[in-house]
């Protein structure tokens, strides 16, 4: 009887935990963003001097933040920032967009995934 009760409690908790997990941004996403991106792109809502704000960038056309002086290469790239494009750009910015002002790459796929998840969560 005890085993059955434990199983019922376990299965009763599953929908709650999976829903809560799906709505919670990965904790490392913000940390990786803050350590690798925020110094040039600002924090959650801040505009930094070196790069445009990345808040809400997921799903948007590249070079579309008003008031930022993008390189002509980025303006002409016609990229939409989705997960695949962001991953390729973050892995090798100058390879995907030769002439971009962005010199920093994230070589670790896990770091790129965390930043992408964070940016996607910020778009909502």
Tell me the radius of gyration: 19 Å
Characterize the main sheet. none
CA-to-CA gap between the ends? 45 Å
Secondary structure tally, helices: 7
Number of strands: 0
Helix content: 55-70%
**For the residues shown, what is the average pLDDT?**
81
Report the order of strands and helices.
HHHHHHH
Poorly predicted residue ranges? 5-21
Q: How would the global form be characterised?
A: globular
Percent strand: under 5%
Structural class: mainly alpha
Task: Spell out the key features of this protein.
single chain, 124 residues, mainly alpha, globular
Write a compact overview of the structure shown.
This protein has 124 residues and is mostly helical. Helix content is 56%, strand content 0%.
Task: Describe what you observe in this structure.
With about 120 residues, the protein is mainly alpha-helical. It is built from 7 helices and no strands. It has helices spanning about 1-25, 25-35, 40, 70-75, 85-90, 95, 110-120. The longest helix has 22 residues, at about 1-25.
